[in-house]
Amino acid sequence: MSDGARGFDDSEVSAPHSGVSKTPEGLLGRTIDQRYRVEALLGQGGMGLVYRVTHTRLNKPLAIKVLRRENTKDPEVLARFRREAESASGIGNQHIVDIHDFGELEDGSTYFVMECLEGLDLIDALDVAQRMPEGRAIHIAIQLCRALGAAHDAGIVHRDLKPENVFLIRRDDTEDFVKVLDFGIAKVANGPKRLTRDGEVLGTPHYMSPEQCEGDGVDHRTDIYALGVLLYEMLTGHVPHDADTMMGILTKQMYEDPIPPKVRVPQISEPLEQLIMRCLEKKPEQRYQTMHDIEADLQRIHTGKQPVGPDTVTLKPTRPPAPTHRAVSPIYLGGLAMALLALVGTLAADAYTRPMADVDTASQTGNFAAPPGLEPDAEQPAAAASSDPEVETKAPRAKRLRRHSRHRPKSSPQRDQAILDPWK
Asked: Which residue blocks in 25-159 are alpha helix, DSSP H?
């Protein structure tokens, strides 16, 4: 599978034809810029198309991503498209997809050329494996830390890290060599101040940080939260938060703590669970602060050492602290006994005077209770309630949370839904 095929409907892939149309939809069989021969359509979405091409001079397979002509008229979409190419090419890390060229077609459509990847994305890998062993998940996560750490060092925040944007290939003797894709909604430091409207939410709900869900300003720590979600999903086969609606997912991301990974899969090691939960803290300042710190702790866990953890996090205690015992002064005990005696005396006096006060009040208002035997037979709420077997039956205890299969079927719209993603 080549880069760009992810997230597209295979039914939309068309066969090559010999037409000479100059539109993005009709590039098959043409040569772009006298050196990129278009050979196959890998996939398409509402915003653009991805083709497999061959560099005619180097005889090298590549992929080309073309923005539809009508979308080039939208300055915001065009800016995001160009940012994807500029961001990825400006980082210069082996775990980020290489961008080779950028240009325009004769009709004004914008395109960029990138490396052609043979492998599968992380979502397909998870569909095959259901959940991964710790060693494989750590191996993938360490490479993600290196890719995103390099991006953050360059002042770039991805903001849409999800399994569809993590591609796994074989390089030399390395299996699961990671390539990070799609920097289309990346936030670049010192770049244009406004590519989005105030309060606009960008990302994919299952992988968005709480501050991203709220539409607040985000920094590199939103990618740290998304990395925690990916680790959680790789190890358990579930995302931390799921719901039937997009708003339900966003609400859980903002306000609910996730089920600890070991509750779902007891075999997960405690240090790795702690690392994941630290990445998933609601407040950014309580998470790991850099990808480099996470990578270092993942290396320690992989070699059986204890992780250091972020300096900014105060771990929530798993059980109440043991009480401390100290000698009690006799004066303190005497004072406590006198206070108890005073309280008992007050309660006794109140019990003696309250019946007289009630009778006096009733005589003034005329609200006396009816004598026994003369109460009305009809409309006795208390009696009716006590005679109703449904009321007397105790409410059933809450059902235990049941484990379900993969959190979303591959065809579910919830899985692939991206808010204002130019490629969905």
From this structure: 75-91, 122-129, 134-153
Cα separation, 105 vs 112, whole angstroms: 10
Is residue 182 within 8 Å of 226, Cβ to Cβ?
A: no
Name the percent of the chain in helix, strand, coil, to the closest 5.
Answer: 40, 15, 45
At 366, list the tokens.
């005329």
DSSP state of 96: B
**Residue 160 is a catalytic residue:** yes
- Examine the domain organization and report whether 226 and 287 are in the same domain: yes
- Percent of the chain at pLDDT > 90 equals 42
118 — phi, psi (to 5°)? -105, 115
**400-423 core/surface letters (b: 16 or more CB in 10 A; e: else):** eeeeeebbbeeeeebbbebbebbb
Closest residue by Cα to residue 202 from 111, 72, 77, 91 = 77
C-beta separation of 240 from 264 below 8 A: no
**Does pTM top 0.85 for this prediction?**
no
Beta-bridge partner residues of 110? 104
Residue after which a domain boundary falls, among 115, 142, 171: 115
Indicate whether 343 belongs to any domain.
no
**Domain check: are 142 and 17 in the same one?**
no
| Token pair in block for residue 224 | 């740290």
Given a cut of 70, is residue 176 above it in pLDDT?
Answer: yes
Q: Which listed residue (3, 121, 160, 223) is catalytic?
A: 160
59 burial class (0-12, 13-18, 19+ CB within 10 angstroms)?
Answer: exposed
Helix (H, G, I), strand (E, B) or coil at 309: coil
Name which of 164, 206, 166, 205 is nearest 45 in CA terms. 164
C-alpha dist (Å) from residue 25 to 22, 120, 144, 399, 422:
8, 25, 34, 53, 17
* Contacts for 157 with CB less than 8 Å, ≥ 6 apart: 151, 186, 187, 188, 218, 219, 220, 222, 223
- Could you give the dihedral angle defined by the CA atoms of residues 253, 259, 260 and 261, in that order, rounded to the nearest 10 degrees? -90
| Mean pLDDT of the 91-100 span | 90
Structural domain harbouring 18: 10-115
User: Are 140 and 134 a contacting pair, CB within 8 Å?
Assistant: no
Residue 402 has pLDDT above 60, yes or no: no
Q: Is there a domain that residue 237 lies in?
A: yes
Q: What letter represents residue 307's amino acid?
A: P
- Contact between residue 169 and residue 119 where contact means Cβ atoms under 8 Å apart: yes
Total of domains in the chain? 2
